[in-house]
Amino acid sequence: MSVGRPTVCAVNAVQTYRYLQPSALRPAGLDLQTCGGPAANPRFFSGFLTTPAAAAAGLLAVAEVARTRYHQPVSPASLDPVVTGSRDRLRFESFSGCCGVYARMDVVPAGFDGDIVGHGTTNVDVNPPLREALARVGGIEPLHVAVGPDDLTVSTLDDAVVEKKVPLPGRWLRGFAEVHVLTAAFEPRAEIPAAEAAAFLRRLPGANDRSVLWAVPAGRTLRLTSRPTPGAVCLAGAGRLAALRGLLRHARTLRVYGPPVRAGSPAVASTWELDTGALRLSLTLSPEPYRGFSGEGAALLALAGDEVIDDAELVGALLSWDPTIDVAAFADAAGLPDDRVRAALAQLGTAGRVGYDVADGGYFHRVMPYDAGRAERDNPRLVGARALVERGAVEWADGHATVRSGEEVYRVRRLPDGAYTCSCRWWGRHQGQRGPCKHALAVSMATAPAEGPA
Asked: Is-annotated flag, keyword Metal-binding (predicted)?
């Protein structure tokens, strides 16, 4: 993931990393170099990791996801992970080059002994020599780590700047919003001990497998099946869990999270989390190996309300680097109902300002320099829906809405659960699995007459 302010080009942005020196494991400890965010090269933490081997394995896993394309693997991706310093923890995040796997390592208070000296989100350099060094970290003695350069480094290494430029695709940015909106609906589905987790992961298909499986709790382990049942968790492209294996020997438990499913449910996203007690490493997988999170459409309805941008500004002013955002407390402070606060958080998520932690069951604050307007510019369906509303293309009659788009007229109905159906070809192909079509979005934005449909 990338935090430095990108330079926009015709199609994609270009991300420029400027590190004062390469990150390295030195005799004095682990120096992680940063760039972008609240300063050119911010410093967030100086202290000790209490479980260095586990932390090294977790950081390697996050870095591995950042450089991997799981669908049609070709050349490695080149985006660096990011780290967020909040009040009581460090969060390292990355997104795969194919946009289908989101990784995060949360170092909780038991995992470090030191001071978080700054708050914010920044890129962190994890280069090939550092990866080799991290793979050799062992022992139980605490390891000193610095996240960001000290004042001496800033003043003496101006001539040693490491600079690289990498593309920053729009679909990669959109994945931020989709991941946190999707995972906000997840619930814990299973928890198994580390030994059983290791055996379960060994039984999984290899890296090239593209099948969609379902994991069902079975005593102290998980059983795989080819069909969904209530309580099951989707596991699509099981080889994408490979990054968890390095942390297994340090873990206590494997927890699995997912949305509610029933017999006949389509493939859905899921989160798989190893917990060592000092840190948590989670991988969130897209519903199918070929599907990136950027196209799921989960954030679109939340972004469609006229008041959502104003609400996002109000809620955004309340963010203060709390590791978990209390929606009810924010609703009271902002004078808004809970659902509008959640919609505002979805809007802020598209700007990279919040994420969602399934273990804590809450949002967390981060700041990445993407303006909130990109939520619309990067969602063609939302742009198309607003254009339809502006043209007066939505009409109400006989308990349903119609939308005129070009020469075609589409019939849109709202279901009791708040979802929409549409007679267009796109909705017929996806049946709501990829979010609403632009016609349904237009209907959700338009105001129905008092006697019309809800």
From this structure: yes
Question: Is residue 348 in a domain?
Answer: yes
Do the domain assignments include residue 97? yes
Residue 103: pLDDT band (50, 70, 90) is: very high
Instruction: Report d(CA 133, CA 82) in Å as an integer.
Output: 19
Confidence of residue 451 (pLDDT cuts 50, 70, 90): very low
- Longest Cα–Cα distance in the chain: 75
Domain span including residue 110: 7-167
Same structural domain, 281 and 192:
yes
Residue 454 lies inside a defined structural domain of this protein: no
Same domain for 145 and 48: yes
Which residues lie closer than 8 Å to 361 by C-beta, 6 or more apart? Answer: none
Please tell me the distance from the alpha carbon of residue 439 to that of residue 454, in angstroms, as a whole number: 16
**At which of 326, 358, 375 does a domain end?**
375
Q: Are residues 281 and 307 in the same domain?
A: no
Instruction: Please provide the size of the chain in residues.
Output: 454
Is residue 366 domain-shared with residue 421, that is, in the same domain? no
Under 8 Å between Cβ of 35 and 18: yes
Residue 21, classified by CB atoms within 10 Å of its CB into exposed (0-12), middle (13-18) or buried (19+), is middle
Comparing 296 with 255, the larger pLDDT belongs to 255
pLDDT digits (tens, 9 = 90+) for 109-122: 999 999 888 888 88
Written as one string, the DSSP assignment of 240-258 is: GGGGGGGGGGG-SEEEEEE
According to DSSP, the β-strands at 29-32 and 143-147 are parallel
pLDDT tens-digit series, residues 368-409 = 755 545 656 667 888 899 899 999 999 987 778 999 998 899
CB 112 within 8 A of CB 47: yes
Residue 314 identity: L
Residues ≥6 apart with Cβ < 8 Å to 49: 30, 55, 107, 111, 112, 142, 143, 145
Whether residue 224 is found in the same domain as residue 330 = no
Question: 70 and 85, same structural domain?
Answer: yes
Nearest Cα neighbor of 15 from 45, 36, 43, 46 is 36
**Residue 167 tokens, joined:** 């593309």
